[in-house]
Design a protein that fits this description.
single chain; 132 residues; 5 strands; 45% helix
Length: 132
């Protein structure tokens, strides 16, 4: 098991801690760069991300189409976001996990915006009814 702890810079000088661990897999510079590039894109969507825990696994005992797994736990204010994917290619697994986390970030953001919009619409409606 290899574990790396380091900081990557994000928007506005805020640092996000990355914890990268591997199981039965050799961590190369290319894999590390690929993960960092995916997490930088996620950090641009949510600047409040505190840390990211990425786990990469290779299991030769499983079927060939399910040998590589990647999981990401993104720590944010509020509930953490977690996604996991199993593929035949490690890079495909990393890309799909990043896509899943991106969808979760957008869903959380849209819920927040909808809540604020609902309050504004309610206020507008009460003002219109009071003016009648």
């Amino acid at each position: 098991m290899v574990s790396l702890d380091f900081f990557t810079s994000t928007l506005h000088g805020i640092a996000m801690k990355l914890i990268l661990s591997t199981h039965n897999l050799t961590l190369t510079k290319a894999i590390e760069d690929h993960i960092i590039s995916r997490l930088d894109k996620l950090a641009k969507l949510n600047r409040f991300a505190v840390n990211a825990r990425v786990t990469l696994e290779h299991d030769r005992a499983k079927a060939p189409e399910r040998q590589f797994s990647c999981s990401i736990r993104l720590t944010l204010p509020g509930p953490d976001l977690f996604a996991e994917d199993v593929e035949s290619d490690l890079y495909a697994a990393m890309d799909l996990v990043a896509k899943k986390i991106k969808q979760q970030i957008r869903k959380r953001h849209n819920k927040y915006l909808a809540r604020k919009h609902k309050q504004a619409a309610r206020t507008k409606r009460t003002r219109q009814e009071a003016g009648l």
